[in-house]
Write a structure and sequence with these properties.
Largest interface: A-B, 69 and 51 residues
Radius of gyration of chain B: 16 Å
Largest sheet of chain A: none
Oligomer: heterodimer
Shape of chain B: flat
């Protein structure tokens, strides 16, 4: 609780300070770089502290990520949720790529749209706050156990009932 | 916010609305549909997924806060 409040307070202070910086300034580059390093360190420390064995945590292949996605999808109603998420993200990426290639004012990229808000100090502070909150969540969120772990548990359960 | 008045801006607004609708729909489905946090948590369960998500987060922040006006 105290740790959360402390991190939240730091994030709010950093966002407020970020709002006063210009995107091209060295100070902005330094502060965003520092935030990236801080969140990556936090994620590494939090990951090490999790109560999973070194064996399951060492799973580091793209296949393992796909397996995790499949595991969540198989629990849902025919994986509809995952399919819709993939379609939405695919549409956003596709539209952004098309906008970048087109280069027309009639088809702005997502970053041009966000740039309208982030030009203003308040918009930049809010954007920075949302970004820091997202990073903090990614670093500290309780994740689901890898699929291999569950598979091993199921195997053990079958062995125990024999 | 003149960019939102363009055809491309309208497309982005439509897509944003679809995201919000789907976030609300999955958030209220009592775990029958996969919510965004559930999907992200499943990826965070592996080092590769965690590294991928953090890299995307870092790139988004750098791009939006340091490269774009």
């Amino acid at each position: 609780m105290l740790r959360g409040m402390l991190l939240g307070g730091l994030a709010v202070a950093a966002s407020a300070a970020e709002g006063g910086l210009r995107f091209s300034s060295a100070a902005a580059h330094a502060s965003v770089g520092a935030a990236i390093v801080a969140v990556a360190t936090l994620a590494a420390l939090a990951g090490r502290a999790r109560r999973h064995s070194a064996r399951t945590e060492a799973v580091a292949t793209v296949g393992a990520v796909a397996a995790s996605t499949h595991r969540v999808a198989s629990r849902s109603r025919l994986g509809t949720g995952v399919v819709v998420w993939l379609l939405l993200v695919g549409a956003a990426v596709g539209l952004d790529v098309a906008s970048t290639l087109e280069g027309s004012r009639e088809l702005p990229t997502l970053s041009v749209l966000v740039g309208h808000a982030s030009r203003l100090p308040a918009g930049r502070a809010v954007l920075s706050g949302v970004w820091l909150a997202g990073g903090g969540w990614l670093a500290l969120a309780r994740h689901r156990a890898p699929a291999r772990r569950e598979a091993c548990s199921a195997e053990n359960d079958r062995g125990a009932t024999r | 916010m003149s960019a939102l008045g363009t055809p491309g801006g309208a497309l982005w607004l439509l897509l944003a609305s679809a995201f919000v609708l789907w976030i609300v729909r999955t958030g209220t489905s009592r775990r029958r549909l996969v919510s965004l946090p559930a999907l992200l948590r499943s990826w965070l369960g592996t080092w590769a997924g965690r590294a991928l998500l953090l890299a995307a987060w870092a790139e988004a922040g750098w791009h939006l806060l340091c490269q774009r006006p």
